[in-house]
Amino acid sequence: MTDDADAAAQTDATGQIPNIGKGPAREDSKTVSSRTSFEDIPSDKTSNERTSPKAGAKGKEKAKVTDDEQHNDNSTKDAASRLEEHVGDLFSAPDNSVLIHACNTQGVWGAGIAKEFHKRYPKAFKEYERHCLSAHHPKQNPVRVGTCLLIGPREVKPGAPKHWIGCLFTSAGHGRKKDPSPMILQNTVPAFKDLLDKLSREPQLTEIRMCQINSVLFEVPWKATRKVLQKVLAADAGHRKVHVYSLPAAPKGSIRSFVREH
């Protein structure tokens, strides 16, 4: 076939010969407009999530996970700030403060810081003893671990502080019969929740103090107890601050005049 025949064969319906060898043919405005409406959409990740339901769902799920992680991180920081640690005297609290310590369910404050509570707050001890031995029975109907007893100011001596006493029942026994450490930690959670619930009904309370509960005679590392307390505080709607008091480190070989918490 000749070149003229080839050209004739390629003549379009309008009688015009296509633009052969002279660059791409010019598209009419309708074609350009139609193509532009699709090709102008950006191909970045945000666009893909908008146009693809699957990608969008994944994006939303990822964003939700990120938000949850941020919320958990903020809750952890908030709980940590609400458990404030000090070195000093637990008993120097102002009137209408509550002082918290860990207790057994046998009606005994015989050692550790419980002995100091017994000495300073004899009427509060009688209330604790009555709760364990009269309202309950150590063997037949013992106080349930994981609960608390909140005792209002009882001392009547002139100059006696008006302190509330919070007893957390974290172990049924004491001494060699104390509960295992994992059980004590497990009991600490509901006991502390119970206490916070009771405190929410006492608006006159000015300050919440505790010693490093469980950490001496109950032999539970304070770090472990602190962690479970922070979890409870993270879920507490009251946004209350708890002040934890401990003694300064004693020189090696010295005898403390003040014993720490069990």
From TrEMBL:
Its EC number is 3.1.3.84. It catalyses: ADP-alpha-D-ribose 1''-phosphate + H2O = ADP-D-ribose + phosphate. GO terms for biological process: peptidyl-glutamate ADP-deribosylation. It holds the Pfam family Macro. Residues 1-77 are annotated as: Disordered. Residues 100-228 form the Macro domain. It is an enzyme of class 3 (hydrolase). Belongs to the POA1 family. This is ADP-ribose 1''-phosphate phosphatase.
